[in-house]
Amino acid sequence: MEGKAKNTKTNGDDKMIQEAFERLQKSYAQSNHRQKFEIINNAFLFANSAHKGVKRQSGEPYIMHPLAVAQIVSEEMGLGSTSICSALLHDVVEDTDYTVEDIRSVFGDKIAQIVNGLTKISGGIFAGAASAQAENMRRLLLTMSDDIRVILIKIADRLHNMRTLGSLLPAKQYKIAGETMFLYAPMAHRLGLFAIKTELEDLSFKYEHPEEYKQISQKLEATAANREKIYQNFATPLSPKLDELEIRYKMQERVKSIYSIWNKMQAKKVNFDEIYDIFAVRIVFEPKPDVDVKKQCWDIYSAITNLYSLRPDRIRDWVSHPKANGYQALHLTVMGPDGQWVEIQIRSAKMDEIDEKGLAAHWKYKEYGGRNTIEEQTELDRWLERIQDVLEAPSPNAMDFLDTIKLNLYASEIFIFTPKGEIKTLPQGATALDFAYEIHTNVGDKCIGAKVNHALAPLSYKLSSGDQVEILTSRSQKPQSEWLNFVTTAKAKTKIESFLKKQKKEKIKEGEQLLIACLEKAEIEFSVQILDKFLAFYGYPKKEALYYALAEKQLELPENPQKILKEKTDNFLMKYVKKTFSAGTKDSNETKTVDTPLLDARQIDRKKTYILDEADFQKNYITSSCCHPIPGEEVLGFIQDDGHLEVHKRSCPQALTLKTRFGDRIISCEWAGHKVFSFPCKIEVKGIDRMGVLNDITQAITNELSVNMRKLVIDSLDGLFESVIDVFIHDMDDINQLSSRLQKIKGVKSVKKID
Q: Which DSSP symbol is given to 609?
């Protein structure tokens, strides 16, 4: 019986695997690529054999994962046989006894190169656990220069992992979701994979904030009928006007993603009902071959604005100047017939396809007919070159590198003109000095100022789209440490840091030579013991600091160094110890806010959710000072270097960094009841002003709810009032009760907690 059951299960697995492979073949058959079914079939048989008998965490055969990644690569990215084979084989070298050479001998150099790149990214052979993700990112980008398909398959791999995240433990979910939001969603965005970027964000949000995800999903469902009505009222009069243009087009409603809605609610500090751009209208047309595509976009724009009133400040022309990730569309916002602003995106079918599947998938390594136009190549090529400049800098700090890349991935672009009219793309907020380094490292190093639109401007001048910039240089100029305060691009920051580091090394060497020369003059032989006495006398804990101070003329060496050497050892050693001890304890006194927790969190079972009991507060765990979590909010735990457990909100930006860099130290946590300790909280109340409203608010807080109020500030203007109230509460139940009671007061229109 047992053997029969096992055979039945094996047959069921084989059927599941075969069906998945047939779906992949069908997807590939419908593409425009040359039909290379034989090599795809060989890759599948090879991978299936290699992973035979291995199961995923969910219990399904492991080969289902490479098949799913290959399906994403084919169907959702539009890539061809080389990418599909590489996706099928992407875990073979890492997880089995096969080598890259085995892959090369069967499938050739190109597939072996891509599989090798994917194996290097996932290998886990990093210098230290703390910087693992930063080094991971670095490897990822280094590999991109060889073949963009490595990063595309890696993103597909992460997408499937996110789609199947439910089978993992909560702590693991937080780590992977945080990593995805920090690294992979921005990378997908930068490569123009809009649909995948949106899904990665939504899935990360779903696991990090399940309640908010559920609430927004339900509200979207409840308001769907009303949105459809608004769309129909808008589209029905417009269709005949577009028909007059004699173009083939489709008009459709596109709803904002759940994560985007939540993100806007947080940024604007508004409720769901106050988000007015939850949906947009997209018009995708098939361009006429004999008419310029830009002109056809503007013809559609004219048809819309002849019917509806335009909002001039909301026009975005990404057709004339595509974004650096290849995105092209004409955006406008008009007042619809229902009295609501409606955003419209106008794009050709090709623009739409590039937006959905990514520019990188179209122009680089096309497997069925060469590259697209030069214009489409250059922008991404330039970006890859800028990344390469950063990577080639001598040993950049892994953490700083990660933050810098993150900063640049999501930055909006501005377009700057050189004196000869050439366009350069920079991140929003870039300065004249960023532009100088964008031209060349030597230009940046020697930059003394700029002419922006023919007017003199300092290095720190923030550039705007359309500026024409000429860089002014001087041979005597050198990078300064304060330059780091006003550069934003990764390239500029890395080049300045590299120069300063080199310069500091030279200064330290110079200071060392000054000390040695001083001792030689006094006929004293340099030794470690002599150096220790100088360090103690001047109060420097490290020799590098002493040498640097000497080179910078911050210290004067005595004519007769024997005076220093003859001074009583006890006196200057005590001075040295006292100075270093006080310097070391000052910060610790400032940051110490609670008694040292007794629990060593490294002993906690990470497979279970840790319950935050009130009796253990400030003993077994502490709350973080960066986000001040309150009992009842969604939280997670982080094991600090000393083994103590620190609790963060799941939405805390610092927690996002911790999940990415130290994912193995994240613990799933839940609150127990909290009714003894109080936590500070700010409540914002808005409404229509009237006589006695302030009295009603204070009565509700202090008398009816017995909440301790610390401070109340109220402003009234033109019949409206805004109030911010500082209160002490025990948990989120207190806040919910307080909000509910305040909203019942006559004239009060909104009540919300302020982070």
A: P
Report the DSSP beta bridge partners of residue 160: none
Q: How far apart, in Å, are the Cα atoms of 203 and each of 159, 168, 255, 429, 572?
A: 9, 14, 16, 30, 61
Give the amino acid at 64: M
Q: What distance in Å separates the CA atoms of residue 8 and residue 90, rounded to the nearest whole number?
A: 29
Fold assignment, 2-193: Hypothetical protein af1432 (1.10.3210)
Tens-place pLDDT, residues 554-610: 777 877 777 777 654 444 444 433 343 333 333 333 333 344 445 677 778 878 888
CA distance 171 to 646: 14
State the Cα–Cα distance between residues 345 and 682, nearest whole angstrom: 39
Q: How far apart are CA 319 and CA 317, in angstroms?
A: 5
Residue 385: burial class (beta carbons within 10 Å; 0-12, 13-18, 19+)? exposed
Per domain, the residue ranges of the chain are 2-193, 221-357, 377-496, 499-591, 601-671, 679-754
Residues catalogued as catalytic: 94-95
**CATH annotation of 377-496:** 3.10.20.30
Q: What pTM was estimated for this model as a whole? A: 0.75
Neighbours of 347 (CB within 10 A): 24
DSSP string, 54-105: -B-TTSSBTTHHHHHHHHIIIIIT---HHHHHHHHTTTHHHHSS--HHHHHH
pLDDT digits (tens, 9 = 90+) for 436-468: 999 999 999 999 999 998 889 999 999 988 889
HEC profile of 346-397: EEEHHHHHHHHHCCHHHHCCCCCCCCCCHHHHHHHHHHHHHHHHHHCCCCCC
d(CA 392, CA 235): 52
Paired strand residues for 611: 670
**CATH says 221-357 is which class?**
alpha beta
